[in-house]
Amino acid sequence: MDTLKGTVVFITGGTKGIGFGIALALLEEGCYVAITGRHLEKAHQAATILNQSGDYTGRALGVVSDVRDFESQQAAVQLVLSEFGKVDVVIANAGIGHFAPVSELTIKQWNDTIDTNLTGAFYTLKASSAALKETKGYYISVSSLAGTNFFANGAAYNASKFGLTGFTQAAMLDLRKYGIKTTTIMPGSVATHFNGHVPSDEDQWKIQIEDLGKIVVDLLKMPHRTLPSKIEIRPTIPPSVNKKP
Predict the structure, then answer these.
(1) Would you say 216 and 11 are in contact if contact means Cβ atoms under 8 Å apart?
(2) How far apart are CA 229 and CA 14, in angstroms?
(3) Quick check: is 123 catalytic?
(4) CA-CA distance, 117 to 98, in Å (whole number)?
(5) Which of 32, 138, 139, 157 is catalytic?
(6) What is the pLDDT along the chain (245 residues), one digit of tens a residue?
(7) Is-contact 43 64, C-beta < 8 A?
(8) Residue 92, class by beta-carbon neighbours within 10 Å (0-12 exposed, 13-18 middle, 19+ buried)?
(9) Of 54, 174, 158, the residue nearest 97 (C-alpha)
(10) Dihedral (CA of 107, 113, 195, 205) sign
(11) Rounded CA gap, 15 and 29, in Å?
């Protein structure tokens, strides 16, 4: 697309961090954006901030939804359809992380991670696939470099992101015959509030949320004949590169 004006985008986990940065980038392109959060007040607050960040009044919508609940996802998609009339793009971004050795990882931590990061992405696509077929739209999942690179204490997170990467690539093969494009974005270190982190000046070396927003804009503007189905993104110069031997 030469222009994204009027495109309707549904983003899970969009009240802060990566989802919020993507939402802002898309609003700047003239899109209508629905962001979800598990708490209605936080979703509405984030949407208000987005609407007030530019001449975007009425184009950002806060929706309460829990990606771990399929009926909740169905209701969220229906709300977007009733408000904006269609869904062109779905971005499965909601995610959490629990990190501990397997012997110390709790059953609840495992289930929360898998249910949010992996099953939640499936529920999001399952709930929106009919709408995407109508618009010949785009499904994007936000995975991680942890979806190809395993590390100690990452059993639950690695499993969820390896699974998400595989799920999205298989879904790409299922959906392309309907004219739906599918991509998984796999970022490395991003300056966000993930896992309780508070971004600061010390995070300037990391990928910034606006950088991921630009990547999504570029993907949506890619000629329809061309599909970057999996994108790995890394900080150019992480601190380890500058360490003296």
Answers:
(1) no
(2) 22
(3) no
(4) 11
(5) 157
(6) 579 999 999 999 999 999 999 999 999 999 999 999 999 999 999 999 999 999 899 999 999 999 999 999 999 999 999 999 999 999 999 999 999 999 999 999 999 999 999 999 999 999 999 999 999 999 999 999 999 999 999 999 999 999 999 999 999 999 999 999 999 999 999 988 676 777 788 889 999 999 999 999 999 999 999 999 999 999 999 887 766 55
(7) yes
(8) buried
(9) 158
(10) positive
(11) 19
Strand order in the sheet with 181-187: 60-64, 32-37, 8-11, 89-92, 138-142, 181-187, 230-233
What tokens does 196 get?
Answer: 């309780």
Where along the chain do its domains lie? 8-242
pTM flag (> 0.85)? yes
Pick the CATH number of 8-242 from 3.40.50.720, 3.10.310.40, 3.30.110.30, 3.50.50.60: 3.40.50.720
d(CA 162, CA 157): 8
